[in-house]
């Protein structure tokens, strides 16, 4: 019975995620919406996912078309990952090419993107670099923190 209840809850959360993401995107198809979003930061501060569930690890995404910003947890992020992975790499590349981050920061971000877990020192370093990137992206998209 518990397994059935978990699947029902998962479907509700999945539908909630899709509906909210479509509402905040230009496209009216969830699959097409995914291409509009960039991963701009992730941390272990927790909070509430856009689907409504409590989260331990928070990932912040910005829609490059509308400028909307959302926060998701790991489970919902998995649904986004394929759609935004290339755009996140594009963002990091853009930051390096425009001298917003240096070669070491660029390499560090590429390395930690491949890791499932980070040490406290890696989290701290990643957060400092991500804050630099967020400042630039927020200015580009005219988003107030």
Notes on the structure:
With 145 residues, this protein is an alpha+beta fold. It has one domain. Helix content is 57%, strand content 14%. A hairpin with a 5-residue loop joins β4 and β5. α3 packs antiparallel against α4. The longest helix has 24 residues. 24% of the residues are buried. The N terminus is likely disordered.
Secondary-structure element order, as H and E? HHEEEEEHHH
Task: Provide the helix percentage.
Answer: 55-70%
Shape: globular
Strand content: 5-15%
Summed over residues and divided by their number, the pLDDT gives a mean of: 76
Radius of gyration: 16 Å
Largest sheet: 3 strands, antiparallel
Number of contiguous helices: 5
Q: What distance lies between the first and last C-alpha atoms, to the nearest angstrom? A: 43 Å
Structural class: alpha+beta
Side by side, the strands of the main sheet go: 1-4-5
Contiguous low-pLDDT stretches (5 residues minimum) are 1-13
- The number of strands is 5
Number of domains: 1
């Amino acid at each position: 019975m518990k397994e059935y209840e978990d699947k029902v809850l998962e479907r509700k959360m999945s539908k909630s995620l899709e509906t909210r993401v479509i509402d905040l995107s230009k496209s009216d198809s969830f699959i097409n919406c995914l291409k509009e979003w960039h991963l701009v930061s992730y941390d272990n501060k927790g909070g509430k996912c856009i689907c409504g569930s409590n989260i331990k690890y928070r990932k912040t995404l910005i829609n490059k078309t509308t400028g909307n910003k959302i926060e998701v947890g790991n489970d919902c992020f998995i649904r986004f990952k394929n759609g935004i992975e290339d755009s996140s790499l594009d963002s990091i590349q853009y930051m390096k090419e425009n001298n917003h981050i240096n070669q070491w920061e660029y390499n560090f971000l590429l390395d930690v993107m491949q890791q499932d877990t980070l040490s406290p020192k890696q989290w701290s370093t990643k957060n400092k670099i991500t804050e630099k990137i967020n400042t630039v992206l927020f200015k580009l998209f005219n988003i107030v923190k």
